[in-house]
Amino acid sequence: MIKHYMEMNFGMIDLVLDAGHGGRDPGAIGPTGLQEKECNLYIAKKCEEILKKQGITVQQTRADDSYIGLSERAKIANDANSKYFISIHINSADIQTANGTEVYSLVKGGEGEKLAQRILSSMVNEINLSSRGVKFANFAVLRETNMPAILIETCFISNVNEERLLREDSFKDKVALSISKGFLDYIGISYKEDVSVTDDDSKLTPLIAPSQASKDQGKQWAKNNGGTELFISLADLYWSMYSAHGNINPTIAYAQAALETGYGKFGGSIDESFKNPTGIKSTSARDDSADSYVRFKSWKDGVSAHLDHLALYAGADGYPIENTTDPRHFAYLNGKVKYVEELSGNWSASQDYGLKLLKLINDIEGVTVVDKFEDSNIYEDSIIEEKSEEKETIKAVKDKLLTFSEEIDNLKTKYQEFSSVINDLDKMISYKDSENERLLKENGELMDKVKQYGEVIDDILNIINTRAR
Fold first, then answer.
1. Which residue in 206, 212, 187, 305 sits closest to 248, CA to CA?
2. 3-state secondary structure of 349
3. In this protein, which residues make up the domain named MurNAc-LAA (predicted)?
4. Which end of the chain, C or N, has fewer beta carbons within 10 A?
5. By three-state DSSP, how is residue 59 classified?
6. Sign of the alpha-carbon torsion through 174, 178, 183, 189
7. Sequence-separated (6 or more) residues with CB below 8 Å from residue 169
8. Mean pLDDT throughout 220-248?
């Protein structure tokens, strides 16, 4: 594999594969919720796996669930000076019975149309879906790319039956194989069954392996190359933590951190405050702005995420794992990259990324330690920092409880005041009731007297009337 990279022309690759949609853009969604972006990425990665075994150099526009703009996809292919471009999509329609496969190119009569015809024919033969033909459209990824380019609409995710097929990895594997065979047929290469790369594996540099360099060699190398004091101290984390994170070779991880951060000088969109030694992006990343990168709580968390991501790539025992600080710990990456050389086009779009990293690794392993290095306290600082954050959280909770307790005391005081007012009102009501009873009694007595007086007056009037006769 190293020999293959050394012999290839870094100025051109054979094919750029473009998994449509991604990140915040799910693409079309099937009747039972299957998202187009998931299927596109699976098929594109499977195509890459197949074609690489056939000796084809491949680069992806996206290797994970990230959002990339249409023009940026075309730019990736143009910057890579790719010979061909294939964008992979799943179709959708308002009519749920719509079905079949179609392939788009920009215009009639060009190499794009020829490539589209060859791949469509291969797909129809392999996956047994109806052909909707080669069509032409002014899509951005077809218009803005500098090489023969096509866009594949595999089948209809809006069709219940075809969505059911897309849920089967075996079907998506057939789709990838048919695309790969069609591409190979177009460029005049016969597809070889049961291609094995075992013979080349002995020449590769595995990510999981004992380190051939000591921690002090790493520090000496970093110092010789102008590394910052903080970056030199990161060696303590890498060499102390690697065994708990898939046994990733710490020399490889440390060299990669140097490559990504400029030996701790950073200088890109992020700085030292991010505690992110390899520029890991968040799952919602949209571009290369600072907001797209993860801010880790401590250097321990940042190094842990780096090691876990490499261990996932390498297919380390027990991976993928839960409770990792790696935000892009996607299960489909498990075992995809077992060697340093294969980080090209995966960790980085650059096709010479693996070679650059190999040179740094060799430099570390060959350095002579001349300075005396003491263990730094960066590991302890990370722990102290985490404990400090925990203490701050506990303090915040205590402060909230204290405030709540004070509010309860205030409520109690107000309740007592309110109770006193209620008691006064009860007394007033009781007094009023008592007065009402007294007045009613007096009124009854007065009514009796009025009745008596009325009877006396009636008697007097009767006597007067009798005498008057």
1. 206
2. coil
3. 74-184
4. C
5. strand
6. positive
7. 42
8. 95
User: CA nearest 65: which of 329, 389, 344?
Assistant: 329
Both tokens of residue 379? 């590991």
Residues 302-323: b if buried by 16+ CB within 10 A, e if exposed:
bbbbbbbbbbbbbbbeebbeee
Give residue limits of the domains in the chain.
2-201, 215-376
Residue 4 has pLDDT above 50, yes or no: no
What is the pLDDT at residue 265? 95
Neighbours of 188 (CB within 10 A): 6
Residue 325 is encoded by which pair of tokens?
């600080």
In this structure, which CATH number among 3.40.50.300, 3.40.1130.10, 1.10.530.10, 3.30.70.1140 belongs to the domain 215-376? Answer: 1.10.530.10
Cα gap 153→40, rounded to integer Å: 10
105 or 387, greater pLDDT: 105
Known catalytic residue at 153: yes
Residue 230 half-sphere exposure toward CB, CA atoms < 13 A: 17
Query: Which one is catalytic: 48, 153, 162, 260?
Result: 153
Query: CB of 328 within 8 A of CB of 283?
Result: yes
Query: 153: which strand partners?
Result: 89, 102
Residues 162 and 106 sit within 8 Å (Cβ to Cβ): no
What is the C-alpha separation between 41 and 352, in angstroms, rounded? 23
Tens-place pLDDT, residues 345-402: 788 877 788 889 999 999 999 999 999 998 877 655 554 455 455 556 666 777 777 7
* Residue 411 vs residue 387, higher pLDDT: 411
Residue 108 backbone dihedrals phi, psi, to 5 degrees: -75, 150
Smallest CA-to-CA distance from 274 within 257, 252, 255, 253 is with 257
